[in-house]
């Protein structure tokens, strides 16, 4: 399978996982539109980084996992991580998964996080 076809297939699977996650979160929060727009920002990075893709799909694999991760996000709100998807991406960077990721993927993830932080800083000011 070509790389392009693989990325499109992963994107479709990821969209379904995120749709399920948002459906579950809609029971506890009204901010699902912002969660989805944040996801769209990170989607190219997620589908192009194999270890990040696995991490995110596992993080949102089941209802219990989704709710546990959302509660973890809410409990760390004072650490300055802005939104739920941002929290999930940063959570990936804190663990051993990031250490085992290729340098190219690390650079892509870090660049996307930096871009996100710059956008958030501009919107807050």
Task: Summarize the structure in words.
The chain is mostly helical. The protein has one domain. Helices cover 80% and strands 0% of the residues. It contains 7 helices and no strands. The longest helix has 23 residues. The mean pLDDT is 88.
Please summarize the sheet with the most strands: none
Give the termini separation: 46 Å
Shape: globular
Order of helices and strands: HHHHHHH
Radius of gyration: 14 Å
Low-confidence stretches: none
Structural class: mainly alpha
Mean pLDDT: 88
Number of domains: 1
The percentage of residues in β strands lies in: under 5%
Considering DSSP H and I runs of 4 or more, what fraction of the residues is helical? over 70%
Layout of secondary structure:
Elements: H1 3-25, H2 32-48, H3 50-59, H4 63-75, H5 84-94, H6 96-99, H7 103-124
